[in-house]
Design goal:
The chain has helices at residues 3-14, 40-49, 52-56, 75-92, 97-106, 115-125, 132-147, 154-161, 172-195, 206-212, 216-231, 241-259, 268-284, 291-299, 304-314, 317-328. By secondary structure, the protein is an all-alpha fold.
Length: 338
């Protein structure tokens, strides 16, 4: 008996009856031989962890655009915090931790440079529109692995696509990630806003702190424990009404106090204009795109507009800034040495 089969048998002995069993996965679009060691969801997690799009998340904005200081969150550290919270909940509920982690690690692969401002910029100019959760699916199905995609299981892709607030994941593991994403960004964005001194703990309304707690640690513990208590041996992931209402209210407070705060978003207009300018330039100079993008027009008959959007969305903040400088900012003249 190989190790993978042992792992699959252990799932039946240990996991919640509502969990997603690896052996019962709906599979991949392109069938592959099974691994001797890893379950299908472990393989998906590893493929995401080792892909280029995942590595680029370290230089993509979470909330604060190119902040000075090493302690502000990036899109990568956000993803890792989501994965940690989601695994904690899944372990307590005896769900499939590997599926949970794969969804969590892949949920933001399609995010643009400069966070949601970059997403808004591409959505405003791309004829087909742009939504980061749909782009994450394009990344894992098409763009990664030199245009071949990662060939992930249907359960992982479903969780990635449906991690948004309005999403409806088909697995409990996907539901856990959907909530963990919000738990993570609400709490770590409060932490970053306090570091930036645009928000203080005393600014958070008492009606939320009395329910959730007066520190990041207390809030995380309260919300996570509530989800576990209300979801144990249940066919869906639940929160109590008072905790859900308080978290929703705190999220709304963050939108009004931080996410639209002029101090935090003072550079957003510049970032949007930069991405729009880059988009228009590469659309007019399509041949300058890397070959891996250009060939998608021939192999998949994709529109050039879509491919340029893919290319811009895949940039890190620093890469986009450097590309803009190279194309549009004049360099000082120096006499050529003979």
């Amino acid at each position: 008996m190989d190790i993978r089969i042992q792992q699959e048998e252990l799932e039946y002995a240990y996991l919640n009856r509502y969990a997603s069993y690896s052996r019962e996965s709906k599979g991949r679009d392109i069938p592959e031989p099974e691994c001797d060691i890893r379950t299908c969801y472990q393989r998906d997690r590893d493929r995401i962890l080792h892909c280029k799009s995942f590595r680029r998340l370290k230089h993509k904005t979470q909330v604060f655009l190119a902040p000075e200081g090493d302690h502000y969150r990036t899109r990568l550290t956000h993803t890792l915090e989501v994965a940690q919270i989601a695994r904690t909940i899944s372990k307590a509920l005896r769900l499939n931790e590997e599926l949970t982690e794969a969804i969590a690690l892949g949920h933001d692969l399609g995010h643009t440079p400069f966070g949601h401002s970059g997403e808004d910029a591409l959505n405003s100019i791309c004829k087909e529109g742009f939504r980061h959760y749909e782009q994450s699916i394009r990344v894992v199905e098409i763009l990664e692995n030199d245009g071949r995609g990662l060939n992930l299981t249907k359960e992982v892709r479903d969780g990635i696509l449906n991690h948004r607030t309005a999403g409806h994941p088909s697995t409990l593991e996907g539901q856990v990630v959907r909530l963990s994403d919000k738990i993570a960004y609400i709490n770590h964005d409060i932490d970053d806003a306090m570091r930036a001194e645009i928000l203080f703990e005393s600014d958070i309304p008492d009606r939320y702190t009395k329910v959730l707690g007066k520190s990041k640690r207390e809030r995380l513990n309260t919300i996570i424990c509530d989800i576990i208590a209300n979801s144990m041996d249940m066919p869906q992931i639940n929160m109590s009404e008072d905790i859900a209402d308080a978290m929703s209210g705190l999220r709304a407070f963050m939108f009004s106090s931080v996410y639209t705060n002029p101090k935090a978003k003072s550079e957003e207009k510049k970032a949007k204009n930069m991405l729009i300018t880059l988009y228009q330039y590469y659309l007019e100079n399509f041949d300058l795109l890397p070959d891996e993008y250009k060939k998608l027009v021939e192999t998949r008959r994709e529109k050039q507009e879509r491919i340029v959007c893919d290319y811009i969305a895949g940039m890190s903040d620093t890469y986009a800034i450097n590309a803009f400088k190279e194309l549009f900012v004049p360099k000082p003249w120096t006499r050529v040495q003979k």
